[in-house]
Write a structure and sequence with these properties.
11 strands, globular, Amidase signature (AS) enzymes, 12% strand, alpha/beta, eleven-stranded mixed β-sheet, 35% helix
Length: 475
């Protein structure tokens, strides 16, 4: 099957159609001078004012500064000083990333007074590409597993009784409610993929080090990734093209040249070998998730991919206590404020940090060794396949009152956190809905630095299906 970019509708989008227009569509309308970045920004800010009191996606919005930035970008675009698919696009920033002159609270009370002197690298690169930063999004406390109990919690626009995913919850809710066209997420154990799955979005966790983390508050530095969230693979491709690349101020930054993901994402996927382990996709997995992911294999095959049966390496000792890797590093990251200011922390994060402070060294070392062994066996598996297909989340978005959930076997994290340990890139995207209308999601995992192939496969899948175009009923 030969893929092509979506065409722009003849009618100028307004209202809901404008709010949910994809980045590639807005870019085309700007090129045709049928739409102005100032008008789009103003409409976005008006929509935030109208809806965010209900959905609590944003921690901070500065309408005057944002409109001023939109006018500056529009002026530069008219003179061809800024070009590309992100020029004039409204983007939301997770409250973990420094924005000059604004506090980087990271969803906490303890860090609420930390005002950034300059933009983080990822924000700076988005601005250089012409993106307009419309606000800072709420998130789980310090990118952990729960929101701070004294701060507003983002509300899932698909169903207000279901979780919005963590920890990039505000970024996902802003996208799902049509309050931005793209958003920055971060991912330590699933924090791009869980919210993307919960809110019917597409999210990319790039290869470890592919996107700079300078100016991004850490939770677990050896596991933290920064990546794009959007409504489609082609939109994530546009964002990642701008976000990725070497940064000498990030010691783990990858030096490899960044391709134009946006231009290459439309290339066909004929002959791409996609592996699927049906047992891995079934153990501890809700039947609706399993069936949707297995059915998606036929869609990839229809696009020309070759589907192969595989057996993933055993997660063994790694999985049941994999979260301890994050809590151990989190205890170090928060050493300046915890336990000295413990009363400012939420009880769930405080308990995790106490555990991290007392974790036995031999236990941590065993987990690290198990992760190294899994990474090596996974790399060997990629000799036989190019991508691996599995769920993003083993369950549909659960009710709010069921979160957090006791998970003694680590099954809730088995599709996400192991690939933070290995650093492999992944893409999460919609692949169905439950009988009661909640989104379902699949995940593709690639070799290191194979983001292009992930985006190509994602684009091909979305060209052949319409799950990502389904929208919540905000009313």
């Amino acid at each position: 099957m030969t893929a092509s970019r979506p065409t722009v509708a003849a009618a100028l989008p307004t209202g809901e159609n404008l709010a949910y227009a994809e980045i590639s569509d807005l870019a085309a309308l700007y090129r045709q001078r049928r739409l102005s970045p100032v008008d789009v920004t103003r409409a976005t800010l008006d929509r935030i004012a109208a809806y965010d009191g209900t959905f609590h996606a944003f921690a901070l919005v500065d309408p005057d500064a944002t409109l001023s930035e939109a006018k500056r970008v529009a002026f530069a675009m008219e003179r061809a000083q800024i070009k590309g698919p992100l020029a004039g696009i409204p983007i939301a920033v997770k409250d973990l990333c420094d924005v000059a002159g604004q506090p980087t609270a990271a969803g906490t009370l303890v860090w609420r007074d930390r005002v950034a002197a300059e933009d983080s690298t990822v924000v700076r690169r988005l601005r250089e590409a012409g993106a307009i930063i419309v606000g800072r999004t709420r998130m789980a406390e310090a990118a952990s597993g729960t929101h701070h109990p004294k701060l507003p919690v983002p509300v899932n626009p698909w169903n207000r009784t279901r979780v919005p995913g963590i920890s990039s919850s505000g970024s996902a809710v802003a996208l799902a409610a049509g309050l931005c066209a793209g958003a920055i997420g971060t991912d330590t154990g699933g924090s791009i993929r869980f919210p993307s799955a919960a809110c019917n979005l597409t999210g990319v966790k790039p290869t470890f080090g592919r996107v700079s983390r300078r100016g991004v508050a850490f939770y677990a530095p050896s596991l933290d990734h920064v990546g794009p969230m959007a409504r489609s693979a082609i939109d994530c491709a546009a964002m990642l093209t701008a976000m990725a690349g070497f940064d000498p101020e990030d010691p783990v930054s990858r030096t490899e040249v960044v391709p134009d993901y946006f231009a290459r994402a439309i290339r066909p996927v004929g002959g791409v070998r996609i592996g699927i382990d049906e047992h891995y996709c079934s153990e501890g997995v809700d039947p609706s998730v399993r069936d949707a992911v297995l059915a998606s294999a036929a869609v990839f095959a229809g696009a020309g991919a070759e589907i192969r049966s595989i057996s993933l390496p055993s997660l063994g000792e790694l999985l049941p206590r994999i979260i301890d890797l994050a809590t151990a590093e989190g205890a170090v990251t928060h050493a300046d404020t915890f336990p000295a200011r413990e009363t400012e922390y939420g009880p769930v994060l405080a308990a995790a940090l106490h555990r991290g402070r007392t974790l036995a060294l031999d236990h941590y070392v065993r987990l690290r060794l198990a992760g190294t062994m899994f990474a090596g066996r996974l790399a060997a598996l990629f000799r036989d396949v190019d991508l691996i297909l599995c769920p993003s989340w083993p369950v549909p978005p659960p009710p709010i009152d069921q979160s957090p959930v006791a998970d003694p076997k680590g099954l809730r994290l088995k599709f996400t956190m192991p690939f933070n340990v290995t650093g492999n890139p992944t893409i999460s995207m919609p692949c169905g809905v439950t009988p009661d209308g909640m989104p379902l999601s699949l995940q593709l995992i690639g070799r290191h630095l194979e983001e292009e192939l992930l985006l190509r496969a994602g684009f091909a899948f979305q060209q052949a299906s319409d799950w990502h175009r389904r929208l919540p009923d905000l009313h």
